[in-house]
Structure formats: C-alpha cells, structure tokens
Amino acid sequence: MKKKALVVCVLAACSSSAFAEDAPVAPAVPTLGQVFDASGLSVTGYMDMAYNKMDTTGLFATNNQGVVTTTHTPNGITGGAAGNSRIFDTPGANAGQNFNSFNFNQAAVIISKLPKEGLGGLVNITAGQDAPTIASTGLTTGNADITQAFMNYATGALNVQAGKFATLAGAELITSPSNMNYSRAWMFGWGPYTHTGVRATYVASDVFTLIGGVNNGFDQVNSQQGGKMAELNLTVTASPMFSLATTYYGGQETSAVSNVNGYRGYLDMVGTITASSQLKFVFDYANGKQQNAVVAGTDAKWHALALYGNYQFNDTWRLAYRNEVFDDPNGFRSGVAQNLASNTVTVGYAVSKALELRGEFRADKSTQNSFLQSSGLGTNSQHSYAIDAVYQF
Predict the structure, then answer these.
(1) Residue 76 in contact with residue 83, Cβ under 8 Å?
(2) What is the CA radius of gyration of the chain?
C-alpha cells in the first residue's frame, strides 16, 4: 500500500513539473526607466513646496523714507528694480498685509540625451510661482517657463552648446534641490538666470576647464539692445578639497531703469572647500557695473559676498548657514540706495533619498528703512520662518 502511494506521488510530481514546463511564460514588461536607459534618454524632475511667514509684507519700500511710490507687479519687477524684498519665496506679496503663505514654488522636469561623443540635447521646463521671475525677455510665459533648451555636441575634451542655458555665475541655482537653503540670496536674484546663445567648454586637464561663449545678455531670448555679450569662465580644481570658478560677462545691456543701452560688466567668483565628507564651505563674490544705468551718462555699481557652510551629521540630518552682504549704493538692483545684510539658518531632514524637509529662519537688515510693513511704513529689518519640502524623482 505504501509503495502504491509513493508511485502516485511521484507520478503527480512529474505531471505537475511537465505542466509547469509546458506553460507559457509571460515576457517581463520593461519599466519606463529601463526604456529611457536603453535609449540613452534621462528624465528627472522635482517639486518644491513651502510655507513662509514674515513680519513684513515681503516688499521693498521704494524710497529711503519707506513710502511706496511705484506699483508692484505680480512677479515683483517694477521699473527695473526688484519690488519683492526676497527672491522666489514671496510670490504674490501684497502691500496691505504681512506675508504669510503656502508657496508652490516649482515643479520641474529635465529631459536630456547627452552622450560623451556626438550630438545630444536637453530640455528643462519649470512650472510654478517661480516661473515668471526667471522667464527671459522674448519668451512668452505664464506659470511655466522653458528654462533651458539646447543642442549639445561633444567630441573629446570639447563640448559645444547652442540654445538657452543656465548662467555660469553664482553659487546658487534655479533648481531647488541643488541649494543648501530654501530662500535664495539677493545676489542670485539680481544676477543673471539664463542666457541664449552659443557656449563652448574645453576640459584642458583634471585641473583646468575653460568656457567661452556669446549670448544675447542677461535673461534675453531675443536681444533687446542688438549687441551681444561675451561669456568667459575658468574653473580650477586644485585638489579634491578646493576648486575656484571665475566667470565674467561683458557686453551691451539695456538698463531697465533708463531704457538706454550701456556696457555691463559682471564678475563672479565661487570657491568651494570640501573640508571632509561631512563639512563643506562655499564663498561667492560678485561685482557688477552698468553704464547709462538710471539716466544716460550715469553709471551704477554693485557688489556682494555670500558665505555658505553645510554640515552633514548623518544620512538624515544636516545644518546649513548662509551670510550675505549686498551693497547697492545706486539702488540699481534693489530700487533703494542701501547696503543689505542677511543671516540664514536651514535644518534639513531627509525623510528618504527622494524627499527632504527643510526648516529655515532668516533675518535681513538694511541701512535704510526699505522693508515695507503692512502699515505702509518702512523698517530696517525683517524676519521669516519657513518650512520647505523638496521631492525628487
């Protein structure tokens, strides 16, 4: 009886095995990421949403007595000066109330195919409340902006781009995940965002990288002044611990205040010190000059310095600090002849590799009563508290 049962079991097992081998196996469906990888196409993106509360309106008063004398447009640009007292984090600021708002700053996607040899390209679309601020002249936009769109050709150590691309100047970037803090420095907002033209990069060695180009100027798809602006950059990577990137832009630029063309020169130097795998320091110095700035025949100058530090305690927690001074003696960038100073502390908490929460406190100071209060009067200081969420995919 036991032998008979054993035979039945063996036959059943063999039968089951035979059926399993004969059953058709459904082919695995490739994921979208696998399809992109196979085609050499990279698709990435992120979202940046925040809550920001200030003890001022988030606008500049536009004269030294702190009285509003101009109209502020929705994106904060008026008469060539930045009506908003911050860059990006006070969209829709209203003169009648202190700023207290949830912000949908950015939702962006970056699609690229950039082979090491041959032809490729990149398209970067940014949507959200930051889009009108970074939009270039000549490119119609609402709450979405074609931030970058360029063709790319690579051969050996040489790389050539033609189209619209992000500026080389500055330590901070438009892309939110790339920055240490939630709020942006003034020097980021009052420098260029993007350029339209041609750019060539030559990697001379592991130490020296040279970049040269010609473009339409600061944030212009079509040239307002008819002339062109030169772009030069030298990046020196002295060691894994230290690098220095020096950028110069020079050429004809139309002053948005005087509406007259004049030569603009803009120098920016960014140094990066990687003290350890956990500790990083960055300094950013900028110096600008505009001819025919306020009226024909008058020049305006400005300069700024920002110091950054970031300490990564572990995979989850980090602490960042930024100190910035911005000297605008002619009021050409801020709309008020003033010297600005700011201290920003940001705590980052990585919920996962894709999501970081940021808590931030920022204190601003001016030599003038240039920060507009809800009462309509100006004050020389303002403070803010923010919580930010940045999700990458």
Answers:
(1) yes
(2) 26
CA pair distance 342, 124, nearest whole angstrom: 31
Output the CATH code of domain 41-392: 2.40.160.10
Identity of the residue numbered 350: A
pTM for the full model?
0.85
Sequence ranges of the domains in the chain: 41-392
Helices and strands in the chain, H and E counts: 4, 20
Q: Quote the tokens at residue 22.
A: 């004969």
CA distance 68 to 79: 13
Burial of 143 (0-12, 13-18, 19+ CB in 10 A): middle
Q: How many whole angstroms separate alpha carbon 337 and alpha carbon 222?
A: 30
Q: Which two tokens stand for residue 97?
A: 């109330």
- Supply the pLDDT for residue 88: 92
CA gap 53, 101 in Å, rounded = 7
Q: How far apart are CA 95 and CA 231, in angstroms?
A: 38
For 264, other C-beta atoms within 10 Å of its C-beta total 24
Angle CA 202–207–210, to nearest 5: 25
Return d(Cα 186, Cα 182) in angstroms, integer. Answer: 13
Rounded Cα gap, residues 233 and 359, in angstroms: 34
Tokens of 146: 């074609």
pLDDT the model gives residue 31: 63
Collapsing DSSP states into helix, strand and coil, what is residue 81? strand
Nearest alpha carbon to residue 91 among 144, 140, 128, 142: 128
The residues near 24 (Cβ < 8 Å, ≥ 6 apart) are: none
Cα–Cα distance for residue pair 226/80, rounded to 1 Å: 19
* Buried-state track 70-107, b at ≥16 Cβ within 10 A, e below 16: eebeebbebebbbbbbbbbbbbebebeebbebebbbbb
Confidence label for 202 from pLDDT (cuts 50, 70 and 90): very high
- Report percent pLDDT > 70 for the chain: 84
Q: What is the 3-state secondary structure of 36-75?
A: HHHHCCEEEEEEEEEEEEECCCCEECCCCCCCCCCCCCCC
| Token digits of residue 203 | 């990697």
Q: What is the C-alpha end-to-end distance of the chain, expressed in Å?
A: 64
**Burial class of residue 123, CB neighbours in 10 A (0-12, 13-18, 19+):** middle
